[in-house]
Design goal:
It is built from four helices and four strands; from the N terminus they run ααββαββα. By secondary structure, the chain is an alpha+beta fold. The strands form two sheets. It has a two-stranded antiparallel sheet with strand order 1-2. A two-stranded antiparallel ribbon has the order 3-4. Helix 1 crosses helix 2.
Length: about 140
Amino acid sequence: MLRNYLRTALRGVRRHPGYAALNVTGLALGFGVSLLLLTLAWTVVSFDRFHDDAEHVHLAVIDMQAWSTTSTWAPLSEALVQDVPAVVASTRLYDEQHQVQAATAGAVEVAERPTFQETITYTDPSFFDVFSFDLVRGDPAT
């Protein structure tokens, strides 16, 4: 019976090769797009799930017309902790990019580039109340 189905399918491919190629291409494209969307959804759902209370950590994103940022305004962070009973702790992250001169960088040697970009991230003291990163050195309380 399987042999009959295979024979019928091959006859259809021989009689209408353009139609068969269109169907196979559409099927492959559908599978590819579905796999990409599933991968994207899995990445979004599983992002930062290694923290102790990951299901209680949420990200506030400020979306304006000209730009979008994940930095949170200071008054919003403080107001959330004070006014919303469900919010236990809040922390902010802020990234800045700096150009560093290789001559003033000390032990850093940069060949053929006198300057390089360095990103510095600032945060609140309550950062380790929200996230559970393992530290190589130091105490998160201090």
